[in-house]
Structures
1.
Amino acid sequence: MVDAAIDIEAIRKQFPILHQEVNGKPLVYFDNAATSQKPQCVIDALTHYYNTDNSNIHRGIHTLAERATTAFEDTRKAVAKFLNTNEVEEVIFTKGTTEGINLVAATYGRKFIGAGDEIIVSALEHHSNIVPWQILCEEKGAILKVIPVNEKGELIFDEYVKLLSDKTKLVSVNYISNALGTINPVKEIIAEAHKVGAKVLIDAAQAAPHVKLDVKALDCDFLAFSAHKVYGPTGVGALYGKRDLLEAMPPYQGGGEMIKDVSFSGTTFNDIPYKFEAGTPNIGEVIAFKAAIDFVEELGQENIAQYEDELMAYANDLLKDVEGFTPVGTADKKASVISFLIDGVHPFDLGQLLDARGIAVRTGHHCAQPLMEFFNIEGTVRASFSVYNTKEEIKCFVDSLKAVIKMFK
Amino acid sequence: MATINSVQEEIIEDFGMLDGDMEMTIGYVMELGTKLPELPAEYQTDQNIVKGCQSKVWLHAKMVDDKVVFEADSNTAITKGLVSLLVRILSNQTPDDILNADLYFHEKIGMNRFIGTQRSNGFAAMIKQMQIYALAMKAKIN
């Protein structure tokens, strides 16, 4: 079970959480699309900060503040490299993908989108990439349009192109669907949007752990992702924005580092990225975020993707023999997510019974209710794989699935 | 007619025999659900859905003599088993007994551990709905 480029045993050793029993069975963690587990280096970076460097950043002149500030800004450099932008100032730290999207809606949206303008999202989006735009449209009198999907759970590209017009101001789509694993043709989506002068935000929450992100090659205007899905801590993420756009945007929240000078007669705002980073951030978590990026880069994203593809192929092969198995989302290009239903068994019951066997999967609508409505279902069971998962775990999952199904006969 | 507490004690004893095994416990709950009398389709309406449950749970109440009779169903097997426990305990009791009931069986059988927080919240919503029915029935009688 050892791939040429991935030494799975060596990888698993780095994740302490994986080596435990849950409900008396060895843990099989297949809820990676919700959040990934953290390697020891990330946990160590976090504890190191609190044990030795804990201090507020940017303002203090003492040694601890200096250390913390340097480590914090080192993460920004690492994220810039991870996204392939030379401009470190184009990286804004956020709480995560959702805050990144909200930031663009609340600042770019507030300033540049008006009555009658159109925003395009897709039917594959999760709520975080729907609701901020609905709020903006409500406030501004703008119109939200939706790219439809086909039965395989793929965006219908021709329909997307038809939606574009000179009224389109912004297109916001996910790179990979969290609910189905569909990989969207974002490069082409961006190119088409730019033809009508629209800006594009890419929700890369699911893509960050699976594909190499390259904002230059994509030419996206904004891109948001979360650390916790890329083996990093929760409560931290990054928003990339093109410099000219970020500079033209008004601030998001007031206070702290976003200010240059304040007086009661007026305030001048700091330069990017600090203009968008009000208050004391999640310093330790941002610092540990770098350890996560280093972990991914050390393994190599191509190696990760190749290994996860192997896991997917193996799972798909075994699942063919499972009675009543129906996949939901069968796109030609998919990341390591298998969303499915079993005839006559409710996803919640299945999830609960798999948990009794130590197997963690997701059940429900995956915060993508409009997509579930399209498929006319309440939700699915979702098994999502990561680089530390093994074929043995997949075999255990499929065997357990078969045993659980028998309980309903 | 058995009292609310005597039924609770029976349930605690039954679950005690499962020795805390998670899969066996869930399997047993599902089995209890299959024994729940079918809720007539006319009662499976949006109005009868218990709010606060992730799964769909339909709950219907009627008065027979001076007792409240509950009928229920769910679209998931485990939840159906859970609501069957409540029907077993609270059905055929007077509104006052339902309103004054001290429900402790779920804590004694460690329900939180085997159904999780979300379903526990749903379970609390079912109890609340049954008490609301009891209150409505009491008001009707008076």
Note: Residues 26 and 36 of chain B are 16 Å apart (CA to CA).
2.
Amino acid sequence: MVTIRLRVNGKAREVSVRPNETLLDVLRERLGLTGTKKGCVLGDCGACTVLLDGKPVNSCLVLAVDAAHGEVLTVEGLAENGGLHPLQEAFIRYGAIQCGYCSPGMLLSLKALLDREPYPTREQVMSAISGNLCRCGGYHKIADAAQAASSAGERGGDDRS
Amino acid sequence: MSNTSVVGTSVPRIDSAGKATGETKYVTDISVPGMVHGKVFRSTEAHARIVRLDVSDAERLPGVVAVVTGADAPYSYGRMVEDEPFLAREVVRYIGEPVAAVAAVDEETAEAALDHIYVEYEPLPAVFDVEEALSPTAPLVHPQLESYRKGPIPTPVPGTNMCSSFRIRKGDVDAGFARSDFVFEHRFATPPIQHCYIEPCCAIAEYDCTGALTVWSGTQGAHLLQQLLSASLGIPLYKVRVIQPPYGGGFGGKVPMHVEPVAVALALKCRRPVRVVLNREEEFAASTTRHASVVTIKSGVNRDGRIIARKVDAVLDTGAYARIGPLVLRNGSIAASGPYDIPNVWIDGACVYTNKVPAGALRGFGTPQMTWAYESHTDMICRELGLDPVEFRLKNVLRDGGENANGEKVRHVAVDRCIEAAAKGIGWGEPKVTTSPGKARGRGIAATVKACAGPAESLVVLRFNRNGRVRALVSASEMGQGLHTVVAQIVAEELGIHVDDVRVTQPDTDFTPFDELTTASKATFHTGNATRAAARDLRHQIASIVAERLGVPQETLRFEGGRVIAEGLGESVAITDVLGKGKHRATNELVGRGMFASDYVIPLDRETGQSEAPVAFWMYAAQSAEVEVDLETGDVRVLRVVAAHDVGQAISRLGCEQQIQGGVVFALGQSLWEQTIVREGRVVNPTLLDYKVFTSADTPEIVPVIVEDAPHSLGPYGAKGLGEIVTTPTAAAVANAVFDATGVRITDLPLTPEKVRAALKAAGTKTTL
């Protein structure tokens, strides 16, 4: 076992992990953060997407030891100041959620997009979630939500082309 | 449009907040104290006798709690045919079949223990092709077929690989062909495909000291699972409890038992809770596929464009075990002649055993395979006769009062309006957009009909508390389709309260009332009706209390805006004040009960498939597609899909749009590239990457059109179902558009670039610039 330190959703954590343990398993099994979903463990579905130092990663492909000293954001850390994140609000309002198993990963991929590109085009949104598979929905409502939650959406602008 | 205030509007889904925050605990998120982890040792042979099976080394490993084989759990199950063992006994029948299983303190230890199980097989001749399986000399997948218990639907033929057959005989099809001016015959095929729900199958099984079994499972049918486990284990129903937590998608794939038998066998042996979850490779290689199909259709058509006779021969590959195959065959074949009014129809369907991973329901119950065939065929007839595909369909399509292949006079049909809307939306008849050289654009259309077969029964219990809020106890399954929101909307509609004042309980067979399973697009219709009945029962009880309090007749009370209003009196009672204030009654809780059964279904005549009321209800739709084909590479890009669906009455408009857009994306993958490739019984592309699920980057514009011109007289507020038919016409619409663009016809799905390019070459289309 190896002891690693990392920050998860803004809190410093110290965890003992096996050297071959993935960040996904550490989040789910050791830290009880089951909001991050396990869909394929091969990096294909994107359900386990979290932000590691601000960048979206498939946490099933990241060894926990490689995330040591990193800053991890999971879906549980998205809500701010007691209220939902604008992306979460928009996901609910625009019907972006069906079975919801892909939603945490989708939300984090989109959070990363909006952090670097506050005014994304439809194409940029669709590209940002192209590594997150959704089997219930048609992706468009997710994109609608992302655009509504973006700065463009907040200003009342409508950049859906 | 019905006169409603909540029904028919768009409301945010009541299950979405927990899913957006990560709070919702899915079945794979659940942990039970003392739980151990199970892994499955699977067959590497397609058909073989087990000569030796040695698990003693595995049993001795540190951390291993139990190892089971077929000898430890000599049980079999099957809702149609009881042909499937919990774990293989003596014989394996497909690659991936469970042979043994290990429970250990963690998944890693269980997985490692599988390497210490030794098995020796004596290979038996295997059969992988349905046509070969039907030949008299074929190896038999189930030589003991006659000895199995079976339900009323399947018609297995002992001594053959015929698992079930189905037939329709209406009019005189040969005379019809003889009278026709033209006769066309074509053959179509579809491959096995995978559900690819994002959450894998998972179950936890636990026995208590009295022998009672509790199973947590992401199942589409908590009560069905309870029945199957009770029947196969030989323990009474009340000793089996199934709890169904939220789960990540089903699409028909979470009807069969993929993990429960193994979890139960292990729990029985080690007397600890055992969790089994499939990995993605097992999902592909050892769960359930959609049936591969071979469908031949022959139609007689008159010079005036009327279809006089149609003969369909459909063969479905059900793999090594029947599972729900006979039902898929029946529900698909019943409408295999399409949404058309044809006087002479002959349908023969066969569901055939092979040594492959078993097949079952996959979002459409056989209808996608049939629609692919008859709507490609319909387009081929039009192109050969130079008829407009929209006009031809409108000339032949079923309308109110028309007669379907079962001899039923149909009502509440708006498929003609779906065809018109789909045609208009895609710009049918407008000049084609010129595109870059080396590419060609085209448009295609397809119409479809799907049965919700029934009969089925749904019960709902509503608990109304002192705060005026409602807890709905429902066993129908929310799997992403939006059922819980539909239930909440109906309760809110009937009681004049807000949707947020209704909570829906996850299925638990100890508490939530009977609803066998959620498939076949039945829940809005059946559970919706039961919910409405329960809400009206509750309304009656509330009204009697308020009437007594205000001294007015019950009939004068109106439920609106959270109040019970006495018309004329100018008085009202807040719904939150109904209970807890009275003097003479129990005033803490009211319980409303509702039931709906589609018991008006009259079973089909076995010989002719005729019935005046063959199904619970029918659904209709039409979709159109515009594509651009790269003439060099054969790559098909779908630019736009217009999907017009006859829903009767939308309960949640947002929910309908979700289902339509999601269903089209689901079906576009199956149109263009999805297929489970099976070579000599082995799945060779068992990952999401190799299989290639449709992504956001592949998704075109999708225009949902909700048609509400034909409300169903028995549906809640006129509603029909929607969840499956959204996937059924897409592939044919795309293939018809590819023909329109290029003049080449692909008759076997999917429309891969390799296939399209080869067809372009064969047709002499100039593929180099």
Note: The two ends of chain A are 51 Å apart (CA to CA).
3.
Amino acid sequence: MSTTTAAAPVRTQSAPAPKHPPGHEPVHNYLLEPGPSPDVRGLARVWPTVKAWVTTVDHKRIGVMYLFAVSFFFAVAGIAALLVRAELMNPGSDFLTADEYNRMFTLHGVMMVFLFIVPSIPGSLGNFVLPIMLGVKDVAFPKLNLASFYVFIAGASIAVYAILSGGIDTGWTFYTPYSDETNTAVLPMTMAVFVAGFASILTGINFIVTIHKMRAPGLTWNRLPLFIWALYAVSIVQVLATPVVGITMILLAMERLLNIGIFDPALGGDPVLFQHFFWFYSHPAVYIMILPAFGVISELMGTFSRQKVFGYRAIALSSVAIAMLGFLVWGHHMFVSGQSPLSSIVFSLITFLIGVPSGIKVLNWVWTMYRGSVWLTTPMLYALSFLFLFTIGGLTGIMVGTLAVDVHLHDTYFVVAHFHYVMMGGTVMAMIGGLFYWWPKMFGRMMSETWGRISAGVVFFGFNMTFFTQFILGSQGMPRRYFTYLPEYHDLHQVSTIGSWFLGLGLLLVLGNMIWSLFKGKPAPGNPWGAATLEWTHATSPPDHHNFHRTPLVTHGPYDYGVLFSGDGYSGDGAGGDGSGGDGSRGPAPIPNPELGAPQEMEKSIDLGLAQPKPSRD
Amino acid sequence: MAENVHNTSAHDPADHGHHGHHILSAKLLLTVFFSLVGLTIFTVGLGLLEQNEIVHLGAFSVPVALAIAGVKATLVAMFFMALKYDNKVNLLAFSLSIVFLVVFFVFTFLDTGFRGSFDDFSATPIDQTQLEELRLQERNDAILPDFEAQPLLLQGDTALIDPTP
Ligand code: HEM
Ligand SMILES: [Cu+2]
């Protein structure tokens, strides 16, 4: 029998009536099918398997490939970070020269920002979960989705080339006029950023169209899971903002190559204009980084508090508000750049405003736990870490957004600590929490809870040890991006470096847990956490190649956990049909045993007679 | 809605009907084309007139040029890009991108237009405050001798205090 590497045959006629009772159709595990048939054995499987994966248009496989890619860059950039911290253990040069140090932190920053954190949650978890949450077979443009992955890989390859051809020492911000003058690999690196940006845009377009056009019947805007709302907001930002960083990089390249005066004062340009261009993208980009994390946290808070997410509409719309307001605050990065005081004042004011929607979210999450039955699984522990760390990060953001205070704190370790609290304490914590949460769905295996909880503790401890010290260092005047320092900063730098080892250890525990679970983890039930969104209620773990056998019919909001446990599958409370509002009358939903799982709702679907017929071989 | 879960490619040709392109008459297209050419000539002419100081627009020079360019861009978008006849959602997307550009320009001009105006925003410029402080100090020094306290008793009254211990 020949290998069946091609995508599933396209059906032109309606299929015969399904032979299986609802919910008991044979599952075509997306991890294995399409792929070589089971009678191909040994090494002969390798090539067909690889080919089936790299040419797939299945959003789930693309999500998994994104997951591998971003994890790889996270690891590389993380090692660079550990080297930077190790060099800072003592003042003066230990094993890196000043020049190498500059290249090292730039490598860390560029990779973390453009190759890890921007594509991280949308590319991996978003790609995997979004279509299933919407009850559809795939995103609107599956081939575009695959293209986005390869564009990303192309960008990453150019970045690797730039690093190999000598690296770059400007910092991730590429500020002119220095980036005009340095003879490190500025051009290839900016090209890399330019190309990788397109991957973001393609993903964004895909998500927007999918959300608008393809939602399953019954899935109204008021019933969209908050993760979808967040991805929707983030997609808008990606589509609107990313072209600007592309343009900026092109302008920089034109200036370097053709000597056109844009940013270089020697040629009649304006160096501060570069900062306008750069932050016009990069401040919205920090919301590209954090908004998906907000979405993940909303899912985790609901599921693991066993009750409706409080203030559903407020959370959904504050994502959109953040996406819009986020475009109007970029000047807070330029308070001491020589920007006019008038714009500094205006930008400082709007920066204060953006704290409001962020605060709305945090308060709503806290309120979601109130009177719930908080279930301290690993994903929830990471969500709680997020809540602590993001709040610190956000509030220090308001501090540095205060014009007069920032004149002192700008370009010190205080800013470094601020953005690590939001990017790592926020986005990375949410991503790990989300991975622990969706892992059983993605790979059909449970991770170790015990080791998961230990890792959450170690990461939380290591993170604070590394970065809280940097708030103190910064407020005492330690400038950022310096490879040496005065003796009075020695102690805190040492604490921070040792903290980074704990942090690294914690992350290794996470990695180990994942690898362990792939081989030894207990098989996951369809709905281990008793969640109420479609990927849990209507799909197997791991999902079928086509996600669903029949189009799901959505009859309740994304956080109506109680509905799953009430006898006939529907509680009948007409008012609670959407995601908003708590009903107060019922208590929190029961906590299921994750190894057995909670009830699913496979029978709530629409049978159009289009289900796949039983393939001959099983 | 995604009823067709398993049905990847079946496209009903009938539901393509309303997406068809609106056909514009050659006359309309030519009218638009010549208006564009006309406006271009107008811009260039205006520029020449200004250069030769026949017309004085002063500060309005750039805004006027931009306004004419804006009209031209609108014509192109409406007729050549057929946004006038298209689904209004596309018009919305197009307009939003313009709004977006305007945001970028306005905030950036808020900077470039007011650069170096720090002193205007401080209640008292910092160097004036310092100068004033200096003057006060000098005045203080100058009048200090006048305020030097004079001892009331120049000589000790030996009669009052018994010098012998
Ligand atoms: C309440 C929300 C926030 C506010 C008010 C805020 C405010 C600020 C301000 C004023 C600065 C500039 C400080 C300076 O350079 O002197 C800054 C820097 C930064 N923020 Fe935030 N921030 C917020 C949230 C975030 C989030 C969510 C992220 C990312 C996920 C983020 C990432 C960054 C980064 C990367 C920088 C440093 C950029 C650099 O100079 O390299 N911020 N933030
Ligand atoms: Cu910012």
Note: Chain B has five helices and no strands.
4.
Amino acid sequence: MAGKNPWGTGGDGSSGSGDGDAPKGDKGSGDKGNGPRNPWLPPGSGGGDGRRGPNIEDIFKNRGPEGPRRKGGGGGGGPNFRFPQRPGGKSWFPVAVVGIIALGLLATSVHLIGPQQQAVVKTLGNYTRTLDSGLKFSAPFPIETVDVEDVQGVRAVRIPGNNNQVKLILTGDQNLVDLSYIVRWNIKDLADYKFRVVDPVETVNEAAEAAMRAAVAEKQLDETFSGQGRAAIEQDVRERMQRTLDSYQAGIRVLGVEIEKADPPGQVVDAFRDVQVAEQNADAARNQAQGYAQQVLAQAQGEAEAFDKVYEQYRLAPEVTRQRLYYETMERVLSKTDKTIVEATGVTPYLPLPEIRRRAQQTEGPATTVTAPGGQ
Amino acid sequence: MQRLWEDHRYSIIAAGLALVALMLSAYVVPEEEQVVIVRTGEPVGTINTPNGQMGAGLHWRWPFVDKVVRIEKRLLDLEMNDEEVLSNDQQRLLVNAYARFRITNPVRMVERAGSTEGVRTALEPILNSVLRQELGRRTFQAMLTAERGSALQNVRANLDRQARQYGAEVVDVQITRTDLPEAPLQSAFTRMESDRQREARTIRAQGGRDARIIRAEADAEAARIYAESFGKDASFYDFYRAMQSYDATFAAENGDAASSIILSPDNEYLQQFRGRR
């Protein structure tokens, strides 16, 4: 095969110019001082760390029978390999090259943008337009670059992150609370998101941190534990963050802030638990008292009711009822006790008290001795 | 191929040279960057600066004469290290803040700071000291709360004044950290603990108090019920209650005769027993 590859990058005989030199390593884009630059790289990106464009040469090198060369040139891939001949005696080679270039251009000029996505188009570096979802076309690669980004998709960041370091936040009453929360956001304006702020993700995190501390510093400790207080903090943080990010023109929409947990710091959690226990204790004491109250009142009502009923009867026939009650009671009492009747006139009664005691001790009941005075 | 070279040697060489010239003199300014053209050490023009004439895109320069200095156009952040700030009521607080700035005057920036990193290096100590002054004028409570707004406004304005010398504009300053240093932290924990212990004691005491009140109210109410009922006829109540009391006292529940009663024949119960007198 004769002639130089017009697209060559100089100094690399990949088009098989016949001297069978050992293949060189991958040509980086920062291949300065080595003849003309690779035109498929954006000019001016002098550094070797820029994004490498699709290097046609490399693609070509790894294709077909010319394939990646091995030492010793296995198979038909020797240095003197020739392209199959077209009818008319011309080489297929230029056709192949043109085809590959065309494919590459096509690939970089047709974009299928998903339903949640948008893309920003830079024409020679200059932002020109934003593409919505669908099948879109642009000028091919070196002229227009297209950057596709998920804009609808919700990104969630958890703060504090995965480092197990507990972050305590100071409240307005100079107490500390152990908070973790989630911030959900997505992209409001892709062009702003891309071209206004250096590191949007980090910006969101820092804005969240600052907003949360400011919001909690205006609340009392107990408010951070209550559901209502939490909701207020979440709302407050969301608004503050949105304000901050809008002032940076970051193109970010804060969808929501959710406090995952708000706990007292670990060192003092026992004291907080004891408050809960104390509340339960107090409730228990109150409940017991309520129980006692119910009992006492029920008893009083019962007794009063009983008395009322008897009294009603008594009022109908006072004398008889009184007598009846007296005798009934005496019957009940005296039938169950030892009775001694003393005819008092001229007799000195002997009271066998020791014996009574003894008997009482055997039965271990209360011993009672009553000397009734002479009645009436 | 050979023929192509033979026939078009000069045009190919010319095209090659043109390509090289293009490489050397054309450059692309992306949307994210602004550019200062330095010609023999002197800045001669800017591209894609805020309020500038020329936007991003493809631009030309004189090869070898013009140097292209690229500068970030987007918002940059300036972080500081944790600082211990003393409030005017002598309390310590660990503070950290960030500032967000952008380069608005790249020519001045290139002349005075050289790079964005240079701007950062220049501004960081200023941010530190301005924040310290501003917060140190406030009480600890004010450091924490509502006054933050005005404090940060002042810090931002101060820092912005300084930053303009380096061609930068400070958009915002935010405090990202306000923590207690170790010793005050421990005493804060102790205080929180004792606060809660006090609260627990109070709650328990209140529970006891409430229980006493509930009991007493019940007793009073019971007494009222009794009085209302029994007060209708005090002497009958006396009799009625006495009967109940005898039942309770003398009627041994377990059936064994535990009490001995000695009755005088004059006892009213025996009145009929002795026959009519």
Note: Chain A has a mean pLDDT of 75.
